[in-house]
Amino acid sequence: MASIKTEKSATLADVARVAGVSKGTASNVFNRPGIVREEVRERVLKAAATIGYHGPDPKGRLLSAGKVNAIGVATMQPLATFFTDPYERVLMTSIAEECDANGIGVSLICAASGEQLAWNMRSAVVDGFILFCLHGAEPLIAQSLQRQLPFVALDHGDDKSIPSIDIDNIAGARAAAAHLAELGHRQFAILAMEFSEDGFGLATPERIEETTYLDTRDRVTGYRQALKEHGIDPNSAPVFETWSDRETVYAALDEIYAAPSPPTAILAQSDVIAFLAMDWLRQHALAVPGDVSIVGFDGVPESAKTKPPLTTVQQPIAEIGRRAVRAILDNRGETVRETLDVELVVRGSTAPPRDRATTP
Amino acid sequence: MASIKTEKSATLADVARVAGVSKGTASNVFNRPGIVREEVRERVLKAAATIGYHGPDPKGRLLSAGKVNAIGVATMQPLATFFTDPYERVLMTSIAEECDANGIGVSLICAASGEQLAWNMRSAVVDGFILFCLHGAEPLIAQSLQRQLPFVALDHGDDKSIPSIDIDNIAGARAAAAHLAELGHRQFAILAMEFSEDGFGLATPERIEETTYLDTRDRVTGYRQALKEHGIDPNSAPVFETWSDRETVYAALDEIYAAPSPPTAILAQSDVIAFLAMDWLRQHALAVPGDVSIVGFDGVPESAKTKPPLTTVQQPIAEIGRRAVRAILDNRGETVRETLDVELVVRGSTAPPRDRATTP
DNA sequence: AGGAAAATTTGAACCGGTTCAACAAGTATG
DNA sequence: CATACTTGTTGAACCGGTTCAAATTTTCCT
Q1: Which chain B residues are closer than 8 Å to A62 by Cβ?
Q2: Which of A67, A240, A282, B166 is geometrically suited to a Cys-Cys bond with A252, CB 3.0 to 4.6 A?
Q3: Any CB–CB contact under 8 A between B113 and chain A?
Q4: Model confidence over B168-190: pLDDT tens digits?
Q5: pLDDT in tens, A204-213
Q6: What's the CA gap between A268 and A176, in Å, rounded?
Q7: Is A27's CB less than 7 Å from nucleic acid strand C?
Q8: What per-residue confidence (pLDDT) applies to B358?
């Protein structure tokens, strides 16, 4: 009797041979069972059962089909950030929901380390990339370009040359600073996100100017524009670079409040930074908004639940995710470029400065 | 001159032809550049550049390589749950970290709807599956078996027949109930997770017995064992099934506290349920732990931050994720079965009942 | 220069399916 | 009964690479 290999898992060709039909027919049995005669279909199915074939391997289909039905979400940060960072979490939620609705999967791709990045993105089996660009966009973009797959960059400021979905960072930052200025604040400090992969602390104008982290730069630009418009010297507001972690934010605040005439208003470039700043302020017996007003950026859900609730620049996070997915799926070759509006949400963390509060 | 197709993206074979070498050599140029003579290598690279070939397509490699370098995480719930549910988030964080460390990707696979499930799992291009079984395990397991890929079920109680990593639910639940009993509580209510896809509210013994949601069942079993051991009739503690959402938890509590002699102790099968219960109690002016003591389950990070902090059964969540990934990656064909220990963490949400508090 | 060892390159097989033009058998139409 | 449709099946080409034994070229030694 013919020996049936059980060592290597059975293939469609095996099934076809055993059932005495062509590979094409066997394929049809699994993909378009309707078009094959019942008698034949049963024979093939029985053959499959006999040799332990449990349906076509997607790896095979992939090649001819072309489409993978999955989109890759790539970041330079550790994969875990997708689940821990409040902003990324909300963004991923909407990306996941939109993918879900379209029946396609999500692949998380990490590019934390240089060489690994190249490989991970080069070998990702996906139909397109959504790039989380907050922390270093170039490598992600370069790899996407190389793969020649549709992609869209998130949080990559106004780089006009690549497909992206972004918000109006300058307008958002202006609204935040204008709000504080209009409340009467005159002493500002800016807690910024990164300007490059390394370094934190007081940022020089050159460093700000030269950064490729466009969102970070634009938000600083917006803050300064608004200050200037309200007759405040932008250079009086120091810009401290942080890594959105406790250590660097605290270090910045230590330095800020060690100076004479410390600020009454803090512009935080993200809600996470604002949360940490509020922790620091509380620990140093500085009341918010009594002693210090603070405005965040992003509008993550947690921002409504702090005490006091955080005044912040609300991004349409869910909309961004949704559009990103659509941009990949609907890709018709043209470059997608969208800039969404943000909205200042005034909550409890901002108030007139103390010296003004009593003289309205 | 020979027309170089620019319509369809170039293939390795095209490069080889243009460079005048064999496909094998061209392949080597990209994968093991070391073994090909420099002159040839440059010629191939130049040819590639000329016709716009940017490196091998992973879809091709896939077939011969076999390995995808990605593991799939499958669930019956919406994909977004991975990012919103506190427990799943922590679990995913550690899964992501472990994958990261091994340079492999994570694919999120949703199986919310029946037919879609089959297809999504059938067509997922991954090396193995991690199954989130809290909400319906069978379909996930069936599909994994069919794909004949290594897989491991999480949160699927003590089903001995499949590879799984789980915790000792009975011991954990016993510890929770014992703790409350030892504090002197005599009136209990149990807020359970689902027993099946549908239904909520007071659960009959039959429903509990027949469920295939093993974790849910085991926790009930553990609770009841401990009650019995402390001389309390297990049947005096009603079991309310909830969907871990505000609506069903509130409905359960409405019913529980409408009864005469309401409980002084609540056993919640998850921290999320406990959080919601605490909200309800606060709204109904019932003090925790003054009027009511409550114990959660899971030990998500948020449990330490509620007011009062929640006494709960701490799962080694990070360890579970890590082992799940290892189980897939190290798969040597043998079935992995691990049961991890849990630990009762006593915090502020439990105290002796009021009638006992003054008579120690 | 001759011969063996080392370094490269080739070519074909293979990975596991899908697709489609062409063909065959069966059936309704004129 | 010939003709035109249907319906079902086949076989070969193709998807885009990788792999490896065998063939070929180089390099090294004496």
Answers
A1: 59, 62-63, 125
A2: A240
A3: no
A4: 999 999 999 999 999 999 999 99
A5: 999 999 988 8
A6: 9
A7: yes
A8: 45
